[in-house]
Amino acid sequence: MIKTDTLQHLDTQDLLKRNQELEKLATEHGLMEQTLKRQTHNLKERIKEINCLYAISKILEQIGLPLETIFQQVVDLIPSSWQYPEITCAQLLINDQSYRTGNYKNTFWKQQVEVVAYGEPIGILTVCYLENRPKQEEGPFLEEERLLLNAIAESLGRTSERKQAEKDLRESKQILKEQNLQLKEKNIALREVMNQILAEKNSLEAKVLANVENLLLPLLKKLDNMGSAIDREYLNLLEENIKQLTSSFGTQISKKNYRLTPRENEICNMIRSGLSSKEMAKLLNLSYRSVETYRNHIRKKLKITNQKINLTTYLTSL
Fold first, then answer.
1. Nearest to 164 by CA among 152, 172, 175
2. What is the predicted pLDDT for the residue at 85?
3. Distances from the Cα of 264 to the Cαs of 78, 125, 269, 271, 292, in angstroms?
4. Averaged pLDDT score across all residues of the chain
5. Percent of the chain whose predicted confidence (pLDDT) is above 70
6. What contacts 24+ positions apart, CB below 8 Å, involve 284-288?
7. Domain 247-317: which CATH number of 1.10.10.10, 2.130.10.10, 1.10.150.130, 3.30.310.50
């Protein structure tokens, strides 16, 4: 009888012990299940955040999409990426414009961040809950939601900078295009003016030459038969110069950098006309040596001293 009671007591203790172990296992299982649910929930939240950033990147990749459309599409993406999408709304105030979800309402439960471009704030991005929810790291919001909001604001800032740069580039190209067109038009107008000036110049030269041939030269021929030998030499020189009225010699020889005196200009003209030093001395009432001295001075001023260049040939080429 004692043995039976002892055995029954032992069986009861064993059952109690096993029952406690089972209860402990059940508690641990419950904790593990809660942990798994929490981790699964957190994983789903992170997936939503990743999907949000991916969707934003796809929007930004679209070429030619207006900045206003980009802002609105990004704002519309935000609620589905927060922990309670059914009570989440969002608004972006940027560049004096407002972009918001259809259910937006400014409430007490909100997150905000500045949108910055080129180092200056250009807008504010706001996310609100329409109802209160259990307290988290930042009011009813998760720490990860704060990080996501900051990332979205940073992306919007970079997009604004890029779009502004693209706009500036387009405007610069347009201005350059207009300037090139104006330059072409001015070049065409300039060519027309130059052609007109050239035509007028040719017409004037033709008139001068016609007057010289028809009026002046016949008079010189008459005077040639009336004067002395020296007079005839001067008349011949005058005739030669009249024939060269339209040449550039007078302009070239009178350049300031030559610094020729009036007498030296006169001698240059005689040399170019083919007169010898002896003939020039006679016409100018100078000694032969003086004329040669003038010739040397002229060569120096024309910078052809010590060069094998004929003075007559050089002056004829001007």
1. 172
2. 92
3. 92, 87, 9, 10, 11
4. 81
5. 77
6. none
7. 1.10.10.10
pTM of the model: 0.51
Given 3.30.450.20, 3.40.50.300, 3.40.50.880, 3.30.450.40, which CATH number is that of 32-166?
3.30.450.40
Residue 234 pLDDT: 63
CA atoms within 13 A on the CB side of 185: 6
Contacts (Cβ under 8 Å, ≥6 apart) of 77: 52, 55, 56, 59
Answer yes or no: is pLDDT of 131 > 80.
Answer: yes
pLDDT category, 218, cuts 50, 70, 90? low
Is 293 within 8 Å of 301 (Cβ atoms)? no
Residues 6+ apart with CB under 8 A from 217: 239, 242
